[in-house]
């Protein structure tokens, strides 16, 4: 009997030990499940963060690509405009070089014509050498400006003398006109006097001869 009781107690103890072992294993499984769930949540959050960062990076990349394409387009336009401006500049420079001799010849002709107006020799200066735009344009320009100022002064003096002459002529005209008016008045007065004397000498001249019916 005691042996049965001992065996029963041993079985109970063995079962209790197995139960505690199972409970310990179950607790370990619960703990492992919590850890795995937390790790999975962390990984999901990390994956979500990476996805958001990837989307943001892709958006930034597309924006950068658009800006790069726009910059390339602007750069291409600027290069074309620069090339066009350069060709235009070269064309203008070539045209300017072609027209430069004509301009210098025209300016020299004008300068020589002004010299004739001013009564100067070809040099434009007494005892000096002739300055041409082909050799020293700066000096030629200053000389030409001085000549133009001289011509302008001549014109001003001429206009002044013309006005003075007009004033003198008008004054003389006014004086002559007054004299003519006075002479005309004197002639009219003389005619009236002559007519009065004639009428006084022949008062019946208007009646006509005897028997004449007027």
Descriptive tags:
mainly alpha, 214 residues, 85% helix
Task: Describe the 3D structure.
- This protein is mostly helical.
- The chain is built from 2 helices and no strands.
- Helix 1 (2-118) packs across helix 2.
- Residues 210-214 have low confidence and may be disordered.
Judged by helices, strands and strand pairing, the structural class is: mainly alpha
Q: Radius of gyration, rounded?
A: 64 Å
Strand segment tally: 0
Average predicted local confidence, pLDDT = 83
* Number of alpha- plus pi-helical segments: 2
Q: Approximately how much helix is present in the residues?
A: over 70%
- Ranges with pLDDT <50 over ≥5 residues? 210-214
Q: What is the CA–CA distance across the termini? A: 212 Å
- Biggest sheet overview: none
Run of helices and strands: HH
User: What spatial form do the alpha-carbon principal axes imply?
Assistant: rod-shaped
Strand content: under 5%
Assembly status: single chain
């Amino acid at each position: 009997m005691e042996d049965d009781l001992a065996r029963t107690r041993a079985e109970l103890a063995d079962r209790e030990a197995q139960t505690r072992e199972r409970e310990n294993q179950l607790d370990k499984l619960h703990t492992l499940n919590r850890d795995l769930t937390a790790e999975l949540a962390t990984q999901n959050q990390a994956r979500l963060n990476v996805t958001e960062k990837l989307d943001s990076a892709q958006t930034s990349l597309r924006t950068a690509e658009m800006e790069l394409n726009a910059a390339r387009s602007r750069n291409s336009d600027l290069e074309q405009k620069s090339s066009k401006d350069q060709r235009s500049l070269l064309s203008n420079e070539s045209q300017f070089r072609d027209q430069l001799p004509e301009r210098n010849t025209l300016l020299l002709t004008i300068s020589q014509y002004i010299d004739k107006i001013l009564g100067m020799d070809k040099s434009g200066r007494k005892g000096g050498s002739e300055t041409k735009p082909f050799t020293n344009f700066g000096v030629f320009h200053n000389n030409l400006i001085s000549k133009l100022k001289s011509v302008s002064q001549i014109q001003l003096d001429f206009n002044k003398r013309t006005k003075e002459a007009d004033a003198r002529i008008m004054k003389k005209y006014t004086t002559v006109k007054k004299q003519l008016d006075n002479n005309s008045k004197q002639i009219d007065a003389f005619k009236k006097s002559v007519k009065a004397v004639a009428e006084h000498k022949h008062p019946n001249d208007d009646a006509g001869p005897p028997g004449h019916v007027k």
